[in-house]
Write a structure and sequence with these properties.
alpha+beta; Pseudouridine synthase; 13 strands; two-stranded antiparallel sheet; eleven-stranded mixed β-sheet; 5 helices; 29% strand; globular; 2 domains
Length: 241
């Protein structure tokens, strides 16, 4: 495998340090800002978290999983290729839990809902990249409403599977969209400069260390929640463990 030349990268190495949540035993967990790709089209693509970590480590770094560029939050990498399948397995239900925070357009008449609906390349209208499709892959998400304000709500979204755009597709299936959504909606939402989705929590339930990580809402989503009148208070969510 050809590893990129890490020449003049000092300007790229500085910001990645502030993003690191955990680093030990070949594992690196970062709190990715919005607008940064998880990985690039090639190892030389500098506009991604993987490249920045490789530049910092001066060696190959592998992504354990990925999140959308516009989504902020927790992202796991490793400098040991053998750890990739191990941590991928640790993140899978029931061994692990991935939970996102989502600020949504809409105020559903339920407090909790599990959406178990397969996701395929297109929905029945064929006008979205992905959609609920009976011929698609199994996909399951648990949504819990955490705060309400007028025509908006704050939810946690727990993934049981890891399909591309799963939260966005399942929200659309329930008649809801993210604030800032520009794809899974008939008219792009101008309520925010990016989709209001944050990879908030990773938990491992297999008894091994590390046991998990949290990344609080970034400033832009905290300000959005405040502007909409949505209280973000995880300590009051009594079902959290």
């Amino acid at each position: 495998m050809k590893v990129p030349f890490y020449g003049a990268v000092d300007t790229l190495m500085l910001p990645i340090e502030s993003l690191i949540v955990y680093e030990s035993g070949g594992l690196t967990v970062i709190n990715k800002p919005p607008g940064l790709q998880s990985t690039g089209r090639s190892l030389e693509d500098s506009n991604c978290a993987q490249y920045l970590l490789m530049a910092r480590a001066r060696r190959m770094v592998w992504a354990v999983h990925q999140i959308d560029a516009d989504t902020s939050g927790l992202l796991v990498f490793t400098t040991k290729r053998a750890l990739v399948p191990i941590y991928q397995q640790r993140l899978l239900t029931p061994n692990g839990q991935k939970t996102y925070l989502a600020i949504c357009n809409g105020n559903p008449d339920w407090e909790e809902r599990v959406v178990d609906a397969p996701i395929g390349d297109f929905n029945e209208r064929g006008d979205y990249r992905y959609g609920v499709n009976p011929n698609g892959k199994t996909a399951k998400t648990r949504f819990r409403v955490r705060a309400r304000a007028g025509a908006y709500c704050l939810m946690t979204a727990e993934l049981f599977t890891g399909r591309t755009h799963q939260i966005r597709v399942h929200l659309q299936h329930e008649g809801l969209t993210l604030v800032g959504e520009n794809r899974y909606i008939d008219t792009p939402c101008g309520g925010h400069h990016r989709q209001a989705l944050h990879a908030w929590r990773l938990r491992f339930s297999d008894g091994e260390e590390p046991s998990g990580f949290d990344a609080p809402l970034p400033q832009d989503l905290s300000e959005l929640a405040a502007r909409l009148g949505l209280e973000v208070n995880p300590s009051a969510w009594d079902d959290l463990t």
